[in-house]
Records
---
Amino acid sequence: MRLAVIFDVGGVLVESPFLAAMRWRDEMNLPNEMLHIFFEEYAKVPEPGTEPPMWHQVEMGKATIEEFLDRVRPGLDGLVADDHPVHSVSGDDFNVFREAGAHWQMVHKVRQLREAGHKTAILTNNVHEWRAWREVIPVDWFDVVIDSSEVGLRKPDPAIWQLTLERLGCSAECSVFLDDHPANVEAAAELGIAGVVVGPDIAAALDELDETVEAMMRSV
């Protein structure tokens, strides 16, 4: 039996973008409220039929990072000095993957899974301008790469998992999904996909993945 193991990028295969954002905050000497302004829309779930938040549109390739920054800049007034460089921050400056390092334990697990005959995929909510993560890990180790900014869908929309499974040629019942955002793992579970929440302890997540794969293989 061949399984499909589907990996998120930030926080799973490479450093969490939120950790990188906190480093960026410290390097630019920004108050904590600043990160809230930049990331408050990330986990919002829009009501059906309503326009997605601007950040969601960026991750679905329907808006640019520069357009997003133009919209949030007015909210910076009063939080930092008028001459602070954050007022003129560019999309390249605000690239949380620019110096991201790989989680090599997780990357090597991808190789082991492939050697065992399983399929592997990437499923990421990402930004077109932040494609530098593809230079950090061996993308050709994955049978399928689904980037939200390329397909116009983002997690937790069930359609993005359905697209991933379709391209993999696998059923939900034969698939495992790893993500650092629990809500995404819960959404995958609603479709019948086994899930692993990846926290700071990468080794613990890998142990859980091994246990999950072994249990699924035994159930055949």
---
Amino acid sequence: MSAPSRSIGSIVQTDRRHVWHPFTQMADWNQTEPLILVRGRGAVLEDIRGREFLDANSSIWTNLHGHGHPAINRALTRQLKQVAHVSMLGFTNEPASLLARELVRMARPTRGPALLQKVFYSDNGSTAMEVALKLAHEHARRARGLKQARFLSLDGAYHGDTVGAVSIGHIDLFHGAFSKLLFPTDKVMSPYCYRCPFNRAKPERADARETRKCGWECISKLEQKFTRAAAAKKPITAFSVEPLMQGAAGMIAQPRGWLKKAAEITRANGALLIADEVMTGFGRTGVGERAAQKKPGTLPLLASHLEQVQPDFVALAKGLTGGYLPMAATLTTDEVYSQFLGKYEDFKTFFHGHSYTGNPLGAAAGLASLELLRSPESEQQRRVLEAAFASNLETLWSCPSVGDVRRVGLVAGIELVRDWRTRKPYPLAERTGIRVCEAMRRRGVLTRPIGSVVVLIPPYCTTVKQLGKMVDALRDSIDEVLGED
């Protein structure tokens, strides 16, 4: 490794003096030496001291194929020789046009015509959701004659940090302080089997979704919400959901069939379905039960499609460029698009945009990433990795402090509790998840918790051996930190 251009102390001092880190208590940050990451290759990151770490959360859920992937590097190098940035306000560029075509292809259902035909680019997951909310609002006003758009989302929902995205979020810790900035929205219970008040099953050493005993009360609550809204003549405009797995809520995995039932209720009530696939998209939620029967290049890449659900909007970001550049997209239907067509003087234009909309570099990276995802090699690697992930995670049930292990495809949340028999949680003030992740870091594995839920989201290039090390590090760290609780 080449020597750093500045001393470690100088870099740390400059960072502390000027940088405000997101979702970080800076008083704590300033007390310890930060990890300065300087290099990445595959699933491995290297810090300024030459120490190597496995990237067990894909650099905050973005890095699909690993760091420094040669195919994406080549695509960016080629595009750099042409043009790095152009405006999309009255102009276009080839990579953005081609990527839009491929995203529409990706979003095509396995049966029937393509419903999502239009792509609006932005630059992150929050803005992708903001676009969907604005479009749904205007569609309700123009096509349905509704004066007031009304949005519904899940309890514990997190859809980003812009004002609209926060308005449909329901995590008080994140959103409560901004309540006076927001427009009102409604929420319905999340299908959180592990802590569901209607789940009559006693705690077992297994995923709570598999052992649950209930009458789908969560679905009944959703249906009641729509019925009451209609009776009050305040119909719901759109229902927003992260398909199969709620991320920042604590990696809450939905029981099989919930999404399909929820989509049917949404459709029956004339509402639009917004799928927030910022985290779940691009194959993250797995290859599907019938993967072996699929032809190469045809595995579903949207979580929605794993339950044969076709949304009216799909928000994409994070893995869109393989974790290389900030880029996002909102996919929607021709029916929504048509509401914004008219003469110039009608001012029906969608008055929304971003300076980096459709950036050619981001689009070039996105095209290369999609090509990788559809390759037989990548599909086979994901099949192998998914099976190994399931097998390795089973070893965590030996830890008394593991209450639930929730896995969907190649994303997992391990909920830590004081007593698995009672599901008694650890108070946030005890920083349980953080302390376990700090212990994992000492073992050469990097990830970040959500409260007392430790998240594992390995890059697709991760080897079975590296995956085993990630899970071993987690199990050993739980024993170290919580072994005597």
